[in-house]
Amino acid sequence: MAGTTPTAGSTLDNYLKFKSGINKRNGGGIPADARIRLGYSIVPFGGPNADKATTPDKRYVTTISKFSNTFRTTAGLSNAVIGYDKVDPLNQRAANFYPAQMKVHVPEANTALVEKTSGITKRKYKTRAGKSYTIPFGAVVTKDTANEYREQMALLSEKAKSAGAKSISFVPEEWTSPTKEAAPGE
Question: Which residues have C-beta within 8 Å of that of residue 137, sequence separation ≥ 6?
Fold first, then answer.
């Protein structure tokens, strides 16, 4: 119910502590160098049609960690396959655009399930040791079909599976409402 206080130590209480900055998620042990962000430009699926998307002003800048970028290149996800191009000064930088993402987990060979505790909810869960990657992707401008997003997901899944991924999920791109300036007060 709105306005009530959750029971101390409950999942909701721990989640609210996470939202307020008290609880921290388990971040893993990625070295600082691997966390460096690399920029690419992509064409949104919900954006301009393919023939107009070849101009730099119709592409949007996105970033990927060096860690995830290394995996995607070794998995055969070339710039052409994933819809990446070099960043151009004319590319759009929209704070209200979140690109589609592929989330991948590659378990270490011959590892058993281990029990961990969530840094957010403090609940226990089972997982396999391994590495997880988040890879933003965009439309491939050489395709012009209504099902391009689904086709892209299928292709990316196959490439990730062949690189050892056992868990693959997708987050669709999202356009949120742009921040509007308030009208001046009198």
Answer: 42, 82, 83, 84, 99, 100, 101, 102, 152, 156
d(CA 141, CA 136): 16
Whole-structure pTM value? 0.75
pLDDT tens, 82-119? 999 999 999 999 888 999 999 999 998 877 888 888 88
The encoded tokens of residue 61 equal 């800048």
**Helix (H) or strand (E) run with residue 133 in it:** strand 130-137
What's the CA gap between 77 and 140, in Å, rounded? 12
Among candidate residues 85, 98, 93, the one with its CA nearest the CA of residue 53: 85
Task: List the structure tokens of 112.
Answer: 């058993």
